Amino acid sequence: MYNYVKMLVLFTILQISFVFNIKEVYSEEINLYGDAGQAYSVEAYLGHPHQKLKLLVDTGSTTLAIASYARENSNEYFHPDNSSSIYDSGKSVQAEYSQGMWSGRLVSDFIKFPSLKSTPEVRSDIALITQSHKFFMNGSGWQGLLGLAYLPVGAWGNGVVVESWLDSVDRTLHRPISFHLKLCGPISKTNTTHYGYFKMLDDHTPQVNSTKIFRTPILRKRWYEVGVLSISVMSTLSAANQTVVDTAKQPNMDMCLKLNAEKSIVDSGTTNIRLPDSLFRQVVDELKNIYRSSQVLILDEFWYQGEAACWPEPQVWTLPWLAIDLLSSDADNQYFRLEIPPQNYMRVVGVYNSSDKTGTVSEYCYKLGIEAGGSETVLGYTAMEGLQVIFNRSAGWIGWQTSDCGANARITGPYNTSYSFKTTCELLRPVSNVAISIRAAQWALCAISIIAAAVLIYLLAPCIKTFFVRRLPSSQQISLSQAALVEQESS
Ligand SMILES: *[C@@H]1O[C@H](CO)[C@@H](O)[C@H](O)[C@H]1NC(C)=O
Ligand SMILES: *[C@@H]1O[C@H](CO)[C@@H](O)[C@H](O)[C@H]1NC(C)=O
Ligand SMILES: *[C@@H]1O[C@H](CO)[C@@H](O)[C@H](O)[C@H]1NC(C)=O
Ligand SMILES: *[C@@H]1O[C@H](CO)[C@@H](O)[C@H](O)[C@H]1NC(C)=O
Ligand SMILES: *[C@@H]1O[C@H](CO)[C@@H](O)[C@H](O)[C@H]1NC(C)=O
Ligand SMILES: *[C@@H]1O[C@H](CO)[C@@H](O)[C@H](O)[C@H]1NC(C)=O
Ligand SMILES: *[C@@H]1O[C@H](CO)[C@@H](O)[C@H](O)[C@H]1NC(C)=O
Ligand SMILES: *[C@@H]1O[C@H](CO)[C@@H](O)[C@H](O)[C@H]1NC(C)=O
Prior knowledge:
Blueprint lengths: L1 H15 L15 E3 L6 E6 L4 E8 L5 E4 L19 E10 L4 E12 L9 E12 L10 E4 L8 E2 L2 E2 L3 H9 L3 E10 L7 E9 L11 E4 L2 E2 L2 E2 L2 E6 L1 E4 L4 E3 L7 H7 L4 E3 L6 E3 L1 H16 L4 E2 L1 H6 L3 E3 L10 E6 L6 E7 L1 H4 E11 L2 E10 L1 E3 L4 E3 L7 E6 L4 E6 L7 E7 L4 H4 L11 H16 L1 H4 L4 H8 L17 E2 L4
Parallel strand pairs: 3-8, 4-7, 19-28, 20-27
Antiparallel strand pairs: 1-12, 2-3, 2-6, 4-8, 5-6, 6-7, 9-10, 11-12, 11-29, 13-30, 14-15, 16-23, 17-18, 20-28, 21-32, 22-26, 23-24, 24-31, 25-26, 29-30
Bound molecules: 2-acetamido-2-deoxy-beta-D-glucopyranose (8 copies).
Family: Belongs to the peptidase A1 family.
Organism: Chrysodeixis includens (Soybean looper)
GO cellular component, one term: plasma membrane
């Protein structure tokens, strides 16, 4: 009976909200673009009348944060004075990263994404950035961040909670909305602009006719924290027919403890796959040794220091694939494997023409898409390109599917083991919960910690960590080394 009533209510809500034309028509339109080396951004209309801006699509943060002043290299920004619908709270908010920060004011205004036809224009909290340090990069093609994570990792202020855009959409539609990212990588061998699709999914619209979805549970609703069980190098037998012979290791306890020691997150705002230091060394040593047998020498700066290496023509990589094992939602002893081809992690970062005495020569520059991350694991967009990723926020899982664009990444499994990953890999270490009541407490706690910082900073370390030890802004990975790091071996 109760269920029946619930169904009726639901049906009514569905009918009401049909005004918003909920059914997503799967006629895809490219709506994400990014310059070489930068993350993907989407076009948004802010305020009334509409001001057109580009926002970086970021699953590694929560707040909608937008530049409202001219920066050194860009005079595109949101003009709050020109919007008739803006509401200014006058409260200050800020976000800090381990390097880089911004501060600004909490306002609210209408936002609409022209490419998301079925998603209504909503009034959303916005952090207007009035000051920043090492946050916007030189000539970045975007003017703000569209944070898509959960509230506990939002921007903060004294007694201020900044609601995310997604929560505003949920509230307006009266039901949970999920989203879908299909990142495709560079347009072509000679054009390094990368493209993709960002789509909202209604939890009540059954997903018909889709390829198999492999689900991994979101372990904690802060960042998109998942159980990464293993990362290893697969060996390729035949590059000619792309047959991968699976010699990658099974997940083992030592590795999964290291990978999840701090946290493992899925972050579209980060470029690389970031691994704990010792595992980074292990994986990269292996790749380097395999590559050593080929004709061209690549210097250690490329492998270990994130420097670019350039060649006069586009490269076809015969390096092995990477295997990333993720915990399955279906059973605690089950996992599946993302198989990432070398064209993902040997990232094209630029195509340049330079002229010298002999004429014009082209340069195709690459960077390694894997980096050392201290003690955390981040699956940046390098691990997402060539796949489709569904973020089911309410149900708490991330679904991975093969894709019809970009690199030929694959997913295999599920595989069973005889033990529980959650226990063996200590995936469910207690950290602060995210029930709504606790969120408020958390904000209060951090406000106190700022006042009494000198005394309490040590005691409240876990709370501080949530806000301060966050991923580096993506600008860290963007700077391109001009040094030519490739030496052609004389033959
Ligand atoms: C903002 O308003 C001023 C004056 O009305 C106008 O000159 C300017 O072009 C507007 N800027 C934007 C970005 O709309
Ligand atoms: C790359 O493709 C984009 C999108 O189609 C286009 O706007 C841009 O001009 C192209 N760049 C080059 C260097 O061809
Ligand atoms: C999210 O997960 C729930 C429960 O598994 C499911 O009912 C819903 O359809 C999912 N939403 C999407 C968009 O897949
Ligand atoms: C999915 O749709 C395509 C084209 O609409 C069709 O060719 C294919 O057979 C369908 N697949 C399934 C599993 O229904
Ligand atoms: C691919 O190459 C391997 C080794 O050369 C061979 O064993 C396998 O049969 C080939 N697969 C296909 C589909 O041709
Ligand atoms: C480089 O030069 C080639 C041929 O001269 C030209 O086709 C290409 O568009 C140039 N690329 C860039 C990025 O300027
Ligand atoms: C793996 O485990 C699941 C759940 O425990 C079970 O349903 C499935 O049959 C197992 N698969 C294999 C291949 O053993
Ligand atoms: C950014 O721009 C400033 C000033 O134009 C310049 O000094 C700096 O070298 C640039 N940084 C990068 C990484 O290009």
